[in-house]
Structures are given as structure tokens and as C-alpha cells.
Prior knowledge:
By secondary structure, the protein is an alpha+beta fold. 19% of the residues lie in helices and 29% in strands. The chain contains 3 helices and 7 strands, in the order αβββββββαα. Strands 1, 2, 3, 4, 5, 6 and 7 form a 7-stranded antiparallel β-sheet that branches.
Amino acid sequence: MAADCEAVAELGRLFDKVPVQMRGLSMAPWLMPGDVLLLDRDVRVEDLFLGDVVVLKHVEGEERIVHRIVREDPFRLLFPFRTKGDRVWEEDPLDDSFRFEGKVISRYRGRKWKTLSCRRWLWVLCKYDLYPGQRLPLWCSRTTLRNFFKGFRP
């Protein structure tokens, strides 16, 4: 796995994609400790949506937060969103000491890469304060939401 991660790091430097290792359980089961996340630094803050997983880095240290965007906050200037871990009940109490580092576009676990994309059902869940790591009501099942959105093609 170390050789795979080194190859990813080398490719990442060429295309401005950065590998970051996940620590902590706040985003489980989507992201687990030890997962290697591929971070896209080219994404502008204006191109982010509810449900996207982002990495915020502390200005003075190496501390990083990998959490999901759950709502917009127009009163914050540099990063106009609120973030939260899927397994955490409260939003992050972030101030302007954290800077947006990039958007998580894929993860490496079990010798496989999986692309992470913001789907419509994640956006709906975020709108109603429901997140993938929590126990969700039956109407929020993947099948129910998929059937609901079949008629909505952009």
C-alpha cells in the first residue's frame, strides 16, 4: 500500500491533487481512519455545494479537519459554509483561523479507489439536518430517494 500511496502522491503533484490520510471517526462509515483521500486544490469556494466533503487546514499548524458542508453561512467571509462530521451532532465552531485547502474527490481503501461525489440525495439530507452517519428515517433510504429523483434529470 505504501508504494501505491507514493505513486498517488507523485501523480497528485503533477495535477495539483494532494493525498491526505484520514484520522478519526467523525466521518465514518464514509471515511475511516487510515483511508487515503485525494484532495483537489483547484476547486474554488464558489463551486462547492451542500454535501461536499472538504478539508480545512489551520493557519498556524498542521491540524486538518475533514468534514461535510452542511449549510451556507453568509456572515463568514473566507469560507461561507458551516461544516460537520457525519457522526457528530454539532457543527464545527470554526473561526477564520482555518483555511479551505480543497475538496475530497476520492478515497483509497482496501486496494480500491472510490470517487466521492455530491449527489442530490446528500443535498436533500443536509437541507433537513440528516447525515449519512446517523440513523435515518425509513423515507431517507437510498432506494426511496433514488426513486424520488428518477424524474429529475438536469
